[in-house]
Amino acid sequence: MTSSPVVHLLKLFVGLATLPELAEFQQQRKLAAAKARGGAMELSHVTRNWPKRAGELLTGGSIYWVMSGAIVARQRLAAFRPVTVHDVPHCRIVFDPALIAVVPRPHRPFQGWRYLPAADAPPDIQKGRRPDGIPAAVALELTRLGLL
Going by fewer Cβ within 10 Å, which terminus of the chain is more open, N or C? Predict the structure, then answer.
């Protein structure tokens, strides 16, 4: 039996410019919402569509976040759960709370989510290589210049 290749999700995050802002948003808003609804204290995103490649996504896949015109971070995918919103079936994408910075890579805006093959995923930034709080656009430009 052959194993499925790893694939990732790519998701646009609008409204915040830095990874610390995203981490704070997830901790304060997302986890508070989970607690309020009496659910598990887990980070998630609810979407209308269920990924057709769920098996590949859950064999080591991550959700990669696009902010300020670049892929800047990822979080490991943990599960997909059915949920109903206004009597319509949806998918709850559950991901690990650890936010991992990646080498910024330019990406245009899009709607919904996209699949990202593992071979096309940007590498993680090693700890201590980038100061926290640097805006994604600045990190992207520094990467283009070979300074980050």
Answer: N
